[in-house]
Structures are given as C-alpha cells and as structure tokens.
Design a protein that fits this description.
heterodimer; B: alpha/beta; 2 domains; 3-stranded mixed β-sheet; elongated
Chain lengths: 142, 211
C-alpha cells in the first residue's frame, strides 16, 4: 500500500515537473521568436503548426535519450545533420536573444553608428562561429 | 451647390496585389450609399507598377484622399483604419517546383526545430542539474540511493510533451480550443512589426507616396 502511494506521488511529481519545465522553456523560445523568425525567413508561416508538433517530438525524444541513456546507431551523416541543425537553431536563438534585449540598437545609438549594419551582423555571426570553433575544437585538451 | 456625399474608405496595413495597375478597390474597402459612386471611386487608379517585378510601395491615406478629391470634388472622403499602408506587388508567375521548394524549406525549418529543441531540453536538464534533483528526491523519500531512473524520470518525460501540447494548444492538427497557438500570435505580431518598420523607413527616406 505504502509503496503504491509513493509510486503515484512520484508520477504526479514527475509529470508536474515536466509540464512546468516544458511550458517555461517554450514560453522562452516563443518570446525570443526563433521559430517565427525561421518561418518568416523561409516564408513558410502556414506550416507553423507542423513546427510546433516537431518541437514536441524533439523535446520528448531528446529527454528520453538524456534521462534513460537510450542509444541510437548513428552514422557520420546523421551525426553531421544533428550537429548542423543544432547549430542553426542555437545560432538563431543567440541572435534573437541579442535582438530581444536590444543589444544592437542600444550599441549603435551610443556610438552614433549609422553605416555598416550588415557588417556588424556578419561580425556577430563570425564571432559566434569562431568562439564555438575555439572552445570545441582548438582548445580541446589544453 | 449640390449636396455633399460621403465615401468611406477602410484600409488594412498591408495588401498584396497581382496586377500592375492598382485600383482603389484593390487596396481598400469602399463604401458609399449610392452603389454607382462606390463603383466610380473603387475604379480610380492609385498606382501603376512600372516593371513586372516584385515591389513594395508605401502610401499615405492622404494620397488617396487627394486622388478622390481631384477626380470627384463633390465627394467627402472619410478614411477609416491605418493612416499609411503598404502595397506589395507580386506578379503572378508560376515558379517551377513551387510546392517542392516550399516543402524543402519546411523540412529545413523542421529539422532545425527538431534538433534545436532536442538540444535545448538537454542543455536545460544539464544546466538545472535535473539528473541530481531526481536522485535527491529518491534519497529524501526512500532514505537510499537509486542507481536507475524510475517513476520520477518517467513522469517527467510524460509531463514534458504534455506541457508543450498545453502551451502550444494543439497536437498535430487537433486544437484544444479555438484560440490561435502562441506561435501563430507571435507570427502576426512579427508581421505587424515588419510592416510598421517598412512604413517608417519609407517615410524617413522620403519614399512614401504623400498627397
């Protein structure tokens, strides 16, 4: 009896933790506007419900892999795809986050910058790329 | 002097046209008590795009008022809605493999969203040390360590998709209630921001069609 009650409480706790985390995480992603920006950029706004469904699958699967140590046999192609698209998404997330907190408008107004916005964005992208390259590849083992 | 007749014109912030010659009825909802006047005003040409190429043009409603006034001075124009509006011209060209290209792009975004959200939940789990919190709860409630994931982890994994489904308000195409989903709301918000930026840019660069 005691065991059963505890199991039920565990499940209830787990489900509420999960629901709260999911709602929080996706409120964040929605506010930052990554998915909407991707949809706007590719002019595929009408598939937005598909993207939401995909997000549900992505989160659920990855969480399973993380918590239960599931494994999948992945060749070099699947691994590269995974890396590439994680990068695309996190890149959008970083750029969108910078935009939400108005980093660029504030900076450019402070130093009265009126030209070269495209270069600023390019520099931002290259900087992120170089930073990741250094941290994950060049600096490994040092 | 004849009696003044009122024409109402309602404008949306952004309209899409497919023909080079843009008439008032293409960009606004025209209303007048007399249907003949409604016809006449609707048929006024607002603008003609010079090239058969994609183009966006920003107009002030004052320009429309001026146009109607010069053609029909006896009419009083009452504009309703946006003070400035965008006319987007997109010639009807059937692109090859249009559907395939669109689905290709949808696939690209889907992959980014799939791996991206997968990556984000794992970074969250690691960042918030979820893998330490569950053993802690087991220790508190059972007084002993557990070496394998159990009920808490399973519940958490069920709760995650449940939470997202609730948040996004639908599963596959089945909606929980009739509200638009948060991303649809965000999408409209973004479009609105883009439109008002286009209008303000045009005004600042003096490219707006004023009266």
């Amino acid at each position: 009896m005691h065991e059963t009650v505890r199991t039920v409480v565990y499940y209830l706790l787990g489900i509420s933790f999960g629901a709260a985390v999911a709602a929080g995480l996706f409120a964040f992603i929605t506010t930052v506007g990554v998915v909407t920006r991707l949809a706007a950029g590719t002019k595929t706004a009408k598939h937005i419900m598909l993207y939401e469904t995909i997000a549900i699958f992505g989160v659920t699967l990855a969480n399973g892999f993380d918590l239960f140590q599931w494994t999948v046999v992945a060749g070099v192609i699947l691994r590269s795809l995974c890396g590439l698209f994680c990068g695309v998404f996190v890149g959008c997330l970083a750029a969108a986050l910078a935009e939400v907190v108005n980093v660029f408008p504030v900076m450019t107004r402070r130093i009265k910058l009126t030209v070269g916005m495209p270069y600023l964005v390019l520099a931002f992208a290259l900087g992120k790329g170089f930073g990741a390259w250094y941290q994950l590849i060049l600096a490994v083992g040092k | 002097m004849s009696q003044q007749i009122t024409v109402f014109l309602q404008f949306d912030q952004s309209v899409l046209v497919k023909k080079q010659g843009v008439k008032l009825s293409d960009v606004a909802t025209v209303y007048a008590t007399d249907p003949a006047i409604k016809q006449k005003v609707g048929a006024i040409e607002l603008y003609r795009f010079a090239n058969r190429e994609k183009e966006k043009k920003v107009f002030s409603v004052m320009k429309v008022v001026e146009l109607v006034d010069t053609s029909y001075p006896e009419l009083t124009v009452t504009p309703v809605g946006e003070p400035d509006f965008i006319v987007e011209y997109k010639p009807e060209k059937k692109q090859k493999f249009e559907k395939a290209r669109e689905w290709g792009k949808a696939l690209f975004v889907s992959l980014a969203v799939f791996f991206g959200s997968a990556f984000t939940i794992v970074t969250f789990n690691k960042d918030a040390s979820v893998d330490e919190i569950f053993p802690m709860i087991y220790r508190l409630t059972e007084g002993a360590e557990r070496s394998t994931p159990g009920e808490l982890e399973i519940g958490y994994s069920i709760g995650l998709p449940l939470g997202i489904i609730l948040f996004f308000n639908h599963f596959l195409r089945k909606k929980i209630d009739s509200d638009p989903t948060p991303l649809q709301v965000q999408m409209r918000q973004y479009e609105k921001d883009v439109n008002s930026t286009i209008i303000e840019n045009a005004a600042r660069e003096g490219k707006k069609e004023n009266a």
